[in-house]
Amino acid sequence: MGASSPSSGCARQQAPALDQLARLLTLGRPLVMGILNVTPDSFSDGGRFMHPASALDHARRMVAEGADILDIGAESTRPYGGAVPVPAGEELQRLTSILPQVADLGVPLSIDTIKAEVAAWALTSGAAIVNDVWGLQRDGAMAHVVAERGAPIIIMHNREQADPSLDIMAEMAGFFRRSL
User: Fold this and answer.
1) Phi and psi for 153 in degrees, rounded to 5?
2) Buried b (16+ CB within 10 A) or exposed e, 13-41
3) Which of 22, 38, 100, 175 is the most buried (most CB within 10 A)?
4) What is the full per-residue pLDDT of the chain (180 aa) written as tens digits?
5) N-term to C-term CA, the chain
């Protein structure tokens, strides 16, 4: 047997979650993704899940109520301003006490981040999917991290501000051409 690559352990850790995700995606039905924001300035929950116990309780409740996938984010992505960017270290600090426990709940976990450093840590700590709300356009290393680990990625569309005069379809087509 040859030497294993540094990311081979990641692949072994992710395999059960990815197998489960593959089974879910072949069911022919819509999937429900539960959202867990561990941010003080979340636009959807107002920071209710900053403490690990409340975050884990909420994650368990979402799974019990039928969530097929859980998405955890530690930096607010409030659209069109208002969100305060946080450094990767702060995002990681918010995640370290909760993400591994949520990953143990038995459903695939996605990490909502635009930072490759955070995605890399999350993928080695139990996340199986990366959800990049800026479509690989904010951190040049993100595509490499995802590709190296063979992780599925959700490539979202985003923009700095709303402009009703734009042709949204053309805007999105251009955005995704840059992303892909």
Assistant:
1) -135, 140
2) bbeebbebbeeeeeeeeeeebbbbbbbee
3) 38
4) 333 344 444 444 555 666 766 766 776 778 899 999 998 766 566 666 767 898 999 999 999 999 999 999 998 876 656 677 889 999 999 999 999 999 999 999 999 999 999 999 999 999 999 999 878 888 999 999 999 999 988 887 777 677 788 888 988 888 778 887
5) 36
**Structure tokens given for 69:** 């996938």
φ, ψ at 92 (rounded to 5°)? -65, -40
> Could you tell me the pTM of the whole model?
0.80
Helices vs. strands in the chain: H and E counts, helices first = 7, 5
Find out whether 126 and 103 touch, Cβ atoms under 8 Å. Answer: yes
DSSP percent split of the chain into helix, strand, coil, nearest 5? 40, 10, 45
Q: Which amino acid, residue 147? A: A
Alpha-helical regions (H) of 26-151: 52-64, 88-96, 99-103, 116-124, 142-149
CATH class of 8-179: alpha beta
